[in-house]
Amino acid sequence: MNVAQALGGAGGFSAPSMDPFEVLRSDYDPNAPPKPAPPPATIRPFLASTDLKIVRYLVGASVMEPSSLANQAALFKPLIVLLWAGLTHLLIVYVGRGWPTSVHNLFASVPKEPLGDGGYMQTATEWLSLTPLIVVAPIVLLALFEMRHRSMFEDKMSRAIGEEDMRDIEEYYAVGQRDGKQGFWVLEYDGRIIGAMGLDGRKPGQQLDAAVDHAKTDDDKKIEDAPSTDSTDAASTSATTSSPYPLRSRGKVSTDPKPSLSVTPPTPALGTSTTTTLSSLPSGTLHLRRLATSLSFRPAHIEDDLLSFVGEYAFGKETGQEENKQIVITLRPAVEKNLAKRLKKNGFVAVPKGAESEVVGVDAQQAKAGIVAALWPLDLSARTFVLTREQWEKQVAQAKKE
Fold this sequence. Notes:
Elements (H helix, E strand, L loop, with lengths): L2 H5 L12 H9 L12 E5 L2 H17 L1 H10 L2 H18 L5 H7 L12 H10 L1 H31 L2 H4 L1 H4 L10 E7 L2 E9 L10 H32 L23 E2 L3 E2 L12 E9 L8 H14 L10 E6 L5 H9 L3 E2 L11 H8 L1 H5 L7 E6 H13 L1
Parallel strand pairs: 6-7
Antiparallel strand pairs: 1-2, 2-3, 3-6, 4-5, 7-9, 8-9
Helix pairs in contact: 3-8, 4-8, 5-8
């Protein structure tokens, strides 16, 4: 009986199924048996019964993610760095004891006497005592950036996940029809959804109806109705208290409902819908309205797979329509640099401001009315990128040559 058999009895250990050196050998030995292939990644149509929660999460996270990136980008703008240095100098001079002797004597006309013996330990102590004053300026600036950016992107996230396409994805994008103009797909890897994409050929470039618009409209109506209700109550109180005689009956009060003044068709989930902004995009334009990917898988450039798929779907021979001329998508290049890089790699080009193919949405309306946005050090306006049929055909031909 060998040692492995002796240890394999009751209460013993079983022999290892494979020599650990064999596992290491497979990485270097070309004659070693191949490793099992990784699970395949597939792009399939959206399925509401299993995909709805994770897709809404991905879309919301993709809208909210640039908030922290915007804080970092704004903090290192040249103007903000100068402001940072100025605040630090004022704090050190007027709140602290001034700059250390080693720095003060380089610029001041009146030398500063060193504290103690003026050695290395004393210099290190002076610098350490200034650490809180040096750190407080960027913390204050980051707090200001966080206040603005978080509230702004939270509003955009609330709007995005409450727009009409996200309320009923299958209905809006006509999932399963494969008409070459619209659709919603998910990128699945090893049983996990790591990406989602929605192509809008129904209302390209238009501002969609959102739940936040209805909530704001309801709040405005409550504010408008409040003064009239108060004045009616005050008038009735005045009428009953000013006269010592009882009031006569005014007869039967009509209970007929008042006619509605709304002329817009009702939305099934939210009641009366708001008016949408008409699009001025050229005919044959498709809008890549949703493109969301998992942050953990972006180093593998999974956006390329989604963009390649949607290009083939819109312009390819199998499902593409001849009237499809271009695909547009909007993003914020200042804080979505990685996505902008992937778009350019796949043939998308930036549309100049005011061009015919530019998507004008909520950001343009806010920019006209917002003074803070004009003075803000970071440009967070959305830009439009476009992929034309001709450019897609060039990309496909070049890929075949390679």
